[in-house]
Amino acid sequence: MKPTSVNRSVVSENGLALDPRREPDPGLEATWAELAARSIGRISLNDARDVVTKTLLMAALEQSNDNYSRAARLLGVTRQAVQYLVHRHDAHTLRVPRVG
Q1: 72 CB-near residues (< 8 Å, 6+ apart)
Q2: pLDDT digits (tens, 9 = 90+) for 25-79
Q3: Are the C-beta atoms of residues 17 and 81 closer than 8 Å to each other?
Q4: What is the DSSP secondary-structure string of 26-93?
Q5: Number of folded domains in the chain?
Q6: What is the value of pTM for the model shown?
Q7: Which of 5, 34, 61, 73 has the smallest CB count inside 10 Å?
Q8: Cα torsion through 75, 30, 12, 81, rounded to 10
Q9: pLDDT (0 to 100) of residue 16
Q10: Which residues constitute the domain of residue 72?
């Protein structure tokens, strides 16, 4: 499903950018749908969005060895969006320092 201009503007205000060229993964959507169905009434939409954003951000930073540009490419956002999200979610305080 291609996002509308309204969706893009809402997401952009949060520092994220959608890539309409990417096709959604049906299996992944089903997993998220099941999780969402179990979470209704247990977590607010804002808190759920923050959890998902932080989880994906941390995974992208791990995979990219903390390279913001590579993490941004993995997430389909700008490097500046990754910087904003790291600051917003205090993600840098959750990273385990590498030894060596």
Answers
A1: 60, 78, 79, 81, 82
A2: 777 777 878 888 888 889 898 988 898 899 999 999 999 999 999 999 999 999 9
A3: yes
A4: HHHHHHHHHHHHHHTTTS-HHHHHHHHHHHHHHHHHHHTTT-HHHHHHHHTS-HHHHHHHHHHTTHHH
A5: 1
A6: 0.62
A7: 5
A8: -20
A9: 45
A10: 44-95
